[in-house]
Design a protein that fits this description.
The structure holds two protein chains of two kinds.
Chain A lengths: L1 E9 L4 E3 L19 H10 L8 E4 L4 E7 L1 E7 L2 E5 L3 E3 L2 E6 L3 E9 L3 E5 L2 E2 L26 E5 L9 E2 L11 E6 L8 H9 L2 E7 L3 E5 L14 E2 L4 E4 L5 E4 L6 E2 L3 E5 L4 H5 L6 E6 L2 H23 L3
Parallel strand pairs in A: 14-22
Antiparallel strand pairs in A: 1-4, 1-12, 2-3, 3-10, 4-9, 5-8, 5-10, 6-7, 6-9, 8-13, 11-12, 14-21, 15-16, 15-22, 16-19, 17-20, 18-19, 18-21
Helix pairs in contact in A: 1-4
Chain B lengths: L4 E5 L3 E5 L6 H16 L5 E6 L3 E6 L6 H13 L10 E6 L9 H8 L3 H10 L2 E6 L6 E4 L14 E4 L3 E5 L2 E4 L4 E3 L2 E5 L20 E6 L2 H7 L1
Parallel strand pairs in B: 5-13
Antiparallel strand pairs in B: 1-2, 2-4, 3-4, 6-7, 6-13, 7-10, 8-11, 9-10, 9-12
Helix pairs in contact in B: 3-4
The chains are: A alpha+beta, B alpha+beta.
Chain lengths: 313, 224
Amino acid sequence: MTARFQITHAGPYVSVQDGGRPKLMRFGVPASGAMDRLALQAANLALGNPATAAGIEVSLGGLALTCTEGAITLAVAGGGFIVEADAKHGSWVVLTLHAGQRLIIRPGPWGSWAYLCFAGALQTGHWLGAAATHALSGFGGGKLATGGSLEIREPRVNQALNGAIPCPIFARPRANLRVTLGPQDRFFTADTLHDLLSSRFALTTAYDRMGVRLSGPALHPAAQLNMPSEPITRGSVQVAGDGVATVLLADHQTTGGYPKIATVLDCDLDGFAQLRPRDAVTYQAVAPTQATALARAHAAAQRAYLLALTRPR
Amino acid sequence: MTRPAFRPVAEHGVLVEFAEKINDAAYAQVRHLDAMLASHGFAGFVESVPAYVNILVEFDPLLTDHSAVIQALHSLLALKSAPATPTTLREVLVCYDADFAPDLPEVAKACGLTEEAAIAAHLAGDYAVFLYGFAPGYAYLGGVPPALHLPRKAAALRGIAAGSVIIAGAQCLVTTLTMPTGWWIIGRSPTQILRPDPAHPFLFDVGDRVKFRRISRPEFEALR
């Protein structure tokens, strides 16, 4: 059995994503995977799929599909997108689609990324063991293109799953970013560090899967630097020579020669990714011990929420 | 400042820094700690990312924390290296034809060499993989002969083809993606650094030695 969809519209940055390909940074390969990892897992678990199975990451550019063959139950989670099929829904919903029906996912009141997962096996390319698309190279499952198609093998129809998926509070956009300072905070003056922690910054439209540039007070390094290239992570707040900070995200470069004034806690990044250009952010410095405590509390809340999704509703 | 410095990176990492500036001793310490992590690891260890003067050590914050990791790293740093295993020598093919090497005339001129002498100098280099960085498969090779050392260009050029052999300072790199670069483009290689073999997806390991071998245009065309 197969379900097929024709892609009647795919905006920029709509791509196949999954749990990503970790542990390859030493080869220049970032983990990639969903920008909002919680939302991808919620959509999968609501269907009874493995949590990090491959799905479609929908950007603010939106996605429109027509089911051309078969029938399938599917889930959309992440952000406050609008989902049109049999009726108009918000994202965080499970629906069943039949041949001839259209599915439209477009931006709604909030959020930058939504995830479309299917009850079945999405047929997609893999690279280094993952379907996650690395935007820069296009390796992995790849970007979706208008006019293309999607194929899902072994599609399941389970009308009993249809209905809302609860959207937890920690899936909302996160404007207060907890950071550890550094690892190159020593290259900035006390005044600049004070500016970092006391000012409001805003996301700019220079926002893609590699990272997002922020506007706000300039954060000039204290001296002209000639640092050796060194490792970068998802969440690094890297400051270029012009004093403008970029927060590195899922498809980040793995090394760079600009100083990192701070690093956003990973547990805040799913929420951060759901902000939109022009949204404000503030930074709050935490000690390493607080950082691990926050990460553990976040993981526990997320685990309890995801576990509840796997119970019969 | 006591060395190494251990710098926290969010809830999931420690950057172990052996020096501020590139030097052989610091890089040897990076390689040593990387090898110790590969052979011994520690509870909660996820991955390590070696660079020139520092190494990022990533861990699972549900299983351990910064201070336990720093303690484990101190123990690993105190371990003696196993006898050095011979490093692998990798061969990378390169074609220096003019359309593959748009910067070769300027590189030769700036270095006071003929183009053939610049090619000979590049081929004579004894290279080693210092680290991967920036993008998938971008292996930074140290060992460009001093006669070819040039600062990078003032501005990056966009859309440089994958497989371009590029140099800047003591570094050489064979690109794997079509990307902008401010380095000097002196040739094109058909040697795949990103490989289709899932068991061995990257040509080099960090530490491998590399020699370039010149090939003709017909050989290049036959291999690509």
